[in-house]
Amino acid sequence: MTATPVPAFEPPYVMAVFTSVRTPDDSGYPETLARMAELVREVPGFLGYESARTPGGLGITVSYFRDHEALARWRREEEHRAAMEQGRRDWYESYTLHVGTVERSHGFDRDA
Questions:
Q1: Which of 14, 41, 63, 91 could make an SS bond with 49 (beta carbons 3.0 to 4.6 A apart)?
Q2: Are the C-beta atoms of 107 and 7 separated by less than 8 Å?
Q3: What are φ and ψ of residue 58, in 5° steps?
Q4: Which residues pair with 100 in a beta bridge?
């Protein structure tokens, strides 16, 4: 699979930057992660996401939404809320969420 960034969208739009450090407990995490990736795509106004984990264990996921209301719909989604609670209980040593409005966006693709 080739890595590709989420395309640049017409601003303004919203991004949520979730940085985390995981616990050793992986029970149910891959399945929940796959379900959340499936579920967020159903949220009206969801634009995409990018995710990476450093060799040192820092995870960074940036999710993009058309507006703050779209992000709020995701935050209120029942299965997502249950996954957040389980994450605090089982999967994360620590995390931080940063939310901001993107004012400028552009991209480059060598092959385009």
A1: 63
A2: yes
A3: -80, 125
A4: 15
